[in-house]
Specification:
six-stranded parallel beta sheet; alpha/beta; 6 strands
């Protein structure tokens, strides 16, 4: 492994106006490593033509643990029987190390949230990641609902997640995503997230994650067929 001790902070905070005290300029660099969360078991599985089997998911999970990930999104347990069984196997067979937090994904839909808690009950430490889409396109073309109605979906989901977390055995933390954030008006995304936080009431001892997804395929981009020379640019294919 390379020696990292030779590296030091190579940039400096912006100047502070006389008579003003700002905390953020003093935070010019991080003092400890960030927490890295692997989402390979969900995103990687979703993109496969043939999803991973139970044994394949277990093998992948054990590799991520060996690598050293302390947060691992293990899947969408309400999506399929394999996803559900995989999570139950991790919990029932005590395959989750004490210093590892698993994460599960659920839409803000009543039956999916309930199925998720059935799958995650008894987890030593799990993040319940719930979401609903807030983008203009989704509101107008898919859900055909107003901003208030979409916000209410998020609030109702948060209320059910909080209620079930108190009824089911397990140690639960929470994460919310305004899905398709990059297609959402920033001020509206803030409004929805704050409404969710008002329900969940996080504390310094029990913080909550707000995730702002950069959803792919939000717009088309021009492409060029390989093999045809681009004469107007570099002349290479």
């Amino acid at each position: 492994m390379m020696d990292a001790t030779k590296y030091h902070v190579g940039y400096y905070p912006p100047p502070v106006e006389p008579g003003h005290v700002y905390e953020w300029p003093r935070k010019d660099h991080i003092e400890k490593a960030p927490i890295w969360c692997s989402v390979d078991l969900r995103d990687g599985n979703q993109s496969l033509i043939v999803p991973m089997s139970l044994d394949e998911k277990l093998e992948f999970y054990e590799m991520l643990v060996r690598i050293g990930f302390k947060e691992i999104e293990v899947g969408f347990p309400a999506a399929s029987e394999t996803e559900y069984e995989f999570l139950r196997k991790l919990i029932d067979e005590n395959r989750i190390p004490e210093d590892v937090t698993v994460q599960v994904l659920t839409q803000c839909r009543d039956h999916i949230i309930r199925k998720t808690f059935e799958a995650v009950k008894g987890a030593p430490r799990a993040i319940i990641h719930f979401y609903n889409s807030t983008s203009v396109a989704q509101r107008e073309q898919v859900f055909k609902k107003s901003k208030e109605e979409i916000k209410q979906i998020a609030v109702d989901g948060a209320k059910l997640v909080k209620k079930l977390s108190q009824e089911y055995e397990g140690n639960f933390l929470f994460e919310y995503s305004p899905e398709s954030f990059t297609g959402t008006e920033p001020e509206y995304a803030v409004e929805v997230c704050n409404a969710v936080l008002d329900v969940m009431q996080p504390t310094p001892d029990r913080p909550m994650i707000i995730n702002l997804p950069v959803t792919v395929e939000m717009s088309t981009t021009p492409t060029r067929l390989s093999g045809a020379p681009n004469i107007s640019n570099t002349g290479t294919a």
